[in-house]
Amino acid sequence: MEEISIEPMKREEIPAVGQLVGRVMATTPIHAAVFGGNAEEVLLRQEEMFLLTFQHHPGQTFVTKRAGQIIGAYRMIKWPACQVTPDEARRVGPLMKKVLKDSLGRVREWVSVWSAEDPPASHWHLGPIVVEARSQRQGIGSRMLEHFCRKVDQNREAAYLETDLAGNVRLYRRFGFHLTREVDLFGVANYFMWRAPDRSGQA
């Protein structure tokens, strides 16, 4: 297998990352329920949503590359910056409204539910985390999770994430996350997971 690298996202890579994340996330149950399918117009809408997200709320975003090509990405944001502030909502809201169109109401409900579950305690919020379709099931997602966990463990920080895929729950458990709550939203099971700080090196 060719060398895999994980490095901070560059500003000029945002369009490619937005497209990648939009296309991969469109295949998940909650996105299908919120956006109503995978017609090309719907896919483009989700790409634009993530493009705006990474332009205005990137946190620390890392891209995974093979042979210089982006094949995966993940974002981590330190609480409470993972919550959208009123100022950000005023600034980005009109752009999102234009992009999301008839999906806006469902997106607002979705974001409201996920935001309410976000623990009010210091942590790094992981998500989205994606690998392009043709590179999945090759251990790349695990490499990205190892990279993330090393970063939070260096400072003995907690971590938190959401997923709508039961298979991902099993994967995240291997990296120390445990399920804190499960919520049904639009007929889709949403799982919320917490990873306690690593205290193994503490005196």
Explain what you see.
There is one protein chain. The chain is α+β, with helices and mostly antiparallel strands and 203 residues long. It has one domain (4-195): Aminopeptidase (3-Layer(aba) Sandwich), CATH 3.40.630.30. The chain has helices spanning 14-25, 29-35, 40-56, 86-100, 104-117, 140-154, 166-174; strands at 4-8, 60-66, 69-78, 124-131, 159-163, 178-185, 188-195. The chain has a seven-stranded mixed β-sheet, sandwiched between helices. The longest helix is centred in the first third of the chain and has 17 residues, at 40-56. The protein is globular and about 50 Å long. The N and C termini lie far apart (40 Å). The model has no long low-confidence stretch (mean pLDDT 93).
Distance between the termini: 40 Å
**Approximately how much beta-strand content do the residues carry?**
25-35%
Number of strands: 7
Number of helical segments with 4 or more residues:
7
Give the mean pLDDT.
93
As a whole number of angstroms, the C-alpha radius of gyration is: 17 Å
CATH C-level: Alpha Beta
CATH topology name, in short, is: Aminopeptidase
The total number of structural domains is 1
| Oligomer state of the chains in this structure | single chain
CATH superfamily: Gcn5-related N-acetyltransferase (GNAT)
Features:
44% helix, globular
Short description:
This protein is of the alpha+beta class and 203 residues long. The chain has helices at residues 14-25, 29-35, 40-56, 86-100, 104-117, 140-154, 166-174; strands spanning 4-8, 60-66, 69-78, 124-131, 159-163, 178-185, 188-195. It has one domain: Aminopeptidase (3-Layer(aba) Sandwich).
